[in-house]
Structure formats: structure tokens, C-alpha cells
Amino acid sequence: MSNRYQHPDRVRFGAAYYHEYQPTDRLKTDLDLMAAAKFSVIRVGESVWSTWEPENGRFDLEWLLPVLDGAHARGIGVILGTPTYAVPPWLARLYPEIAGESATGQRIPWGARQEVDYTHPAFRFHAERVSRRILARYAEHPAIIGFQVDNEPGNVLLHNHGVFQRFVDWLRAKYGDVETLNREWGLVYWSHRLSEWADLWTPDGNAQPQYDLAWRTFQAEQATAFIGWQADIAREYARPGQFVTTCIAYDRAAVDDRTLAATLDVTAGNPYYDMQDALQLPDDRSRPQDWTTRGTWALYQSADRMYSSRQEPFLVTETDAQAIGHSSINRPAYDGQWRQVAWALISRGAEAIEYWHWHTLHFGTETYWGGVLPHSGRPGRVYREIARIGAELDRAGAAVTGLTPGADVAFVYSTQSKRALEYQPSLALPNGEPDLRSYQEIVDAFYRGSFDAKLQSRVWHAAHLTARPAADVAREHPVLVAAALYITTDADLDWLLAYAEAGGHLILGPRTGYADQEARARNEQFPARLHEAAGVEYDEFSNVDDAVTVPGFGAATRWIDGLVPTTAEVLAGYDHPHFEQWAAVTTRQHGTGRITTVGTVPSPAFARALFAWATEARTDAWRPETPELTVTSAVNSGGGRLRFVHNWSWGEQTFTVPVTCTDVLDGTTVAAGEAITLGPWDVRVLLLAA
């Protein structure tokens, strides 16, 4: 944890607040309503550069002062944003050369946001100037607790001439000479060998996966460098205890959340999710995921991803107040669901819950992205539901901060594999087109299986994981899933072997270890460097359009590796006249641990059965038998052990508590063996007796 960021004495709670967007002056009313709802934080200022600087060099900074004064008077802290993600019209007019290019020579039309080349010196000059003016004016204000630089970076892969020239320089620094690049990228193919650096083609017509992986890596470095540059500027003005962050949208094209978060004092993100029936358990539906998650399992995964960025608690700087999306998407939560989701995010390490946003807008693109208050500005059902959460957080206090979430299963996450499988997807959509979310689809199938088996998961970036001794990880995480870990170094694969040797149970999924760090298919038996220890090998693989039955487990979907066991035990095969010649799941002891290989994308039932088998020796009295319930655990900064019991259904449910606890939200004692009752869409937060 950065020494600039300190765990709060209660989970911060609030919303993004744009007084400047209001059609009438209602600042006092708004702040009074926030205080009544126990808000402790608002985010301001990040979207209105043209308000801060209406004309080139003419600044209007005083409009924010009443907001900060009013917030401070009510004990509400403020995260101050720098407005660099939405440039003013005058800047676009005076400096047309700062326009970003989504393809070489094709400027992004101005009129939305994030249209600029944020590496361009002219943009950087003006971005720094306005940021410094804002920071100098307000960093000392007692309401300011931290700074958000920019917002949701990495939206576009920039193709501007200067960006491309820096890419060439980046390649020169990495590879040294064109002959090395020719060899590493295999440019003998299709006569692409370079004779000098000037021969490198622009990315628009590129068909080489090695080029694309390098291009995507470089683009992420540009986004990270931009945010790091702004963060360093903000730190020049920050007082002790004021933190610097940005709001990360995790699916953005040029985002590597691990390296991006490393430039910040604390991770912050925006877990948007579908509400209403999308959260109901049990859930046997398969729905596509994108920037909003669909399904309770996917909500938890988004929280685990945010924790993974730094392996530390995080801030939720945006999430659903009402329905989030365009005017045709209107499904605000059922009563109780906001409360459930807030506590679910907190249980996985969130130390702030901020809604987007306070007041539903009366104009602009996001007119129907609902806020805490509706268009009328009158507090209604949404406000009452959210105010209930604020009161609970007030009562819970420090008992639910500084959390380390529990984990039964660990997952390896690889940004490089995600990029590579976007360029050369393994999976196909029903219409035969490539599925650009092949990486996520494979990983998600395993994560969902863990969730459906009532297990908790911890997501680890590969670079974070392999920096630790494998034996330590094996002790901390007895089960580790490496699915779709397509891009790997030899050292990465050797680390996985060491993990199993040290006593861990390694579960391999499709595509793991297939390519090296340059996205070149490995010239060896698969799974590469792991096949002898796993006791299984394969040479061929197939897409499948229809699910194939796997007796005793469920169904194989979308992909089948032709697993041939050598020394492994076969746990399951395929009920199919052709695929029956191969194993679906094998397992073999290796060292003091085990390697299990899964040769397909498992259906939800298959994945659930897999994890139930993998963890059957580890009983847990807190693991619910009722499909509507989930129980997650965490340890707080004082060592207190917590359990979060959720009922994701319309029906009343009961759960028998195995040990004596205190209900954090009402202070009552729950005796060991006592059954607690959860109403529809309900949650209980329990602190175990010492």
C-alpha cells in the first residue's frame, strides 16, 4: 500500500457530483441530502475543462469553491479530478494536430470525449497548464482527500505519426537491430524481412500477430506513462495523506491495469453491472459480458480483478446508481440489490463505493444514465435504498476496512494472452466470426465454475504471481487455475511446475503454454514444458458448434484439445463418436502436488463439478448448501475475521452460523448453531468471535 493512501476509518461512500450540470442552483439541498444519506465523499471536476478554462489562457477556478466549502462543512471529503479526458472546443480548433487518429491519417471526429493524441506536446502543454492551475488553487482546501487524474484512460489505440515513430524507436531499443526483429517476429514469412527500420509498415494493414502484440504492449505503455506523468504532477501539490488515482475501465484497448495501477497510490475502477433478474441465483444462463457484467458471478469477478491490480484494497469510483446505459436500457435495481452489491464489493476489498452519479442529467449523451436522484431532483426509492447503505457503513466503521478477501482458488490473469487471443481468437461466435473475447470466455468459464461451487477466488496477474516463490503461493493458494495462459515465457511455465512440485494443485485449461512471449506457437509437445509432469499431451484441437456431453461432469463447449494421456489418470471423456478417443479431464500427481488438465471450455455444470472435485478434501462449515446463498470471507486490518452472507433471490432463506459471531450492522450476537434469516435480496455482515 502506498504511504500516501491510508485505510479510512469507514468505507467511503458517495457519488460523482456535478453541480455545474444542474439546471438550477440547488447546492445546499444536494449537500444536505448527501449528509443525511451519510455520504462521506464526492468526486468533482474531471469532465469540464471548458468550464475551468473557457478560452485559451483564461481560467475560471472559483465556481468550485462553494461546493468544496459546503462539502467540508458537512464532513464530506472530495476527490478532485483533472479534466484532461474531455478537451474544450477551443483547444481542438486552435490545435487540430492534437486530434487522435484511430487509423493512420484518419482523425477521430471531435464531439464526444477522448478524441486526442494524449502524447502530443501541444496537448501535454495545455493539459499540464490547466491541471496545475486547478491543483494550485485547491490542493490545500481541507475538503480535498485525493486526486483523480484524467478518467478511464486507454480508450483508443493511437495511430498518429508521432506515436508510430515512437513505436519504431521503442522496437529499436528492445530488439537492437532489424535482423534481430526479423528473427524474433518471423518476418521471413510473406517476404516481410526488414532491411532498415524505415521499412516497418504502419499497423493499419498488419497481418502479423507478433507485430500486433508489440503494438498493443507499446500502446498500453503510452497510456500508463500519460497517467503516471499526471500523477507525478498531482503529487507535487498533494499534502500528506492525499492520494492520487484514476478511474480504470478494465476493458479499454490500451489498458494494462497492473502497470497502470503501479503509477497510482490506490487502484480505482468502475464495476458496472446488470441489475434486477441478472443477479438472481441459482443462475444457469449464459450471457455475453462486456463493459457491464451480467450475472452475480461476474460482479464478483470484476471486484477480484480490481483487487488484483495491486493485490490491495481498491476504490469503486463509479458504479450503478440507477440503470446505466443508453436510453433503451432501463432496469434499475430491485429493493435490496444496491445494498447487496455494495457489501459484495466491500467483501472483496472495496474501501469506497461511489455512484455514478448524484443527479440524473437533463442533457447530453448520458441523459438516461440514472443517478441517485431522478430528473425531478426529488429523493425517491433509489435515494432511500442508498441512504440505508450509508447508515450501515457508519455503523460498521473500521471493521470493514483494510480487508484481505478470502480465497479457495487462485487464477492467473494475463493481459498479454488477452491481447494475443483478440488478434488470433481461438473461439468462434455462432455465426462463425472470430470471438474477440476468446480469452475472457475461457477464463470466465473456470471462474464461474469456482463461484457456482460456492468457492472464493483470488485473481493474480502473472507477473505478480511469478515474482513470488512458488512454494509460498502453493501454501497460500492450494488450487491455481491457468486457463488461456497463451503467452508465456519458459520461466513462467517452469514456475507453474514448481508450484505443483511444492504441493499446489495446478489446473490447466485450453491454450495455456501454446505460444511464447512473442506470440509464436511453440515448437514442442503440448502443453509445452508441462506435458511430462501433467502426464498428457496433444497435437490437435477442434472447435465445436454444439455442446458435447462429458459423462459425470456436464458438457464440453466451443473447443476440444485432443488430450492423449501418457501417465495421467483420465477423470472424464467425451460421449461422441469422434471425440471419445480423447480425454476431457486428466490428473496426475507431480511432486507433492497435482496437475489436472482440462481440454475444453467447460459448461457451468462441468466447471462447478470440477471445482467441487478439486476441493472436496477441504470442508468448510461456512459453505452454503442453498443455491440462492453465497458466503464470502475477509480479514480486516485489525485481524478480525468477517463473513458476508448474501441471499440473491426473492425467497426468504436461512443459514446456520457455525461459530459465534456479532452482526456488524445491528450489534446483535449470533450464537454458534443459530439459524439466521435473510429476506429477499438481503445480506448479513458477521464478525467472528475472537
UniProtKB/TrEMBL annotation:
It catalyses: Hydrolysis of terminal non-reducing beta-D-galactose residues in beta-D-galactosides. The keyword Metal-binding applies. The keyword tRNA processing does not apply. It comes from the Bacteria. Residues 637-686 form the Beta-galactosidase C-terminal domain. Residues 17-395 form the Glycoside hydrolase family 42 N-terminal domain. This is beta-galactosidase.
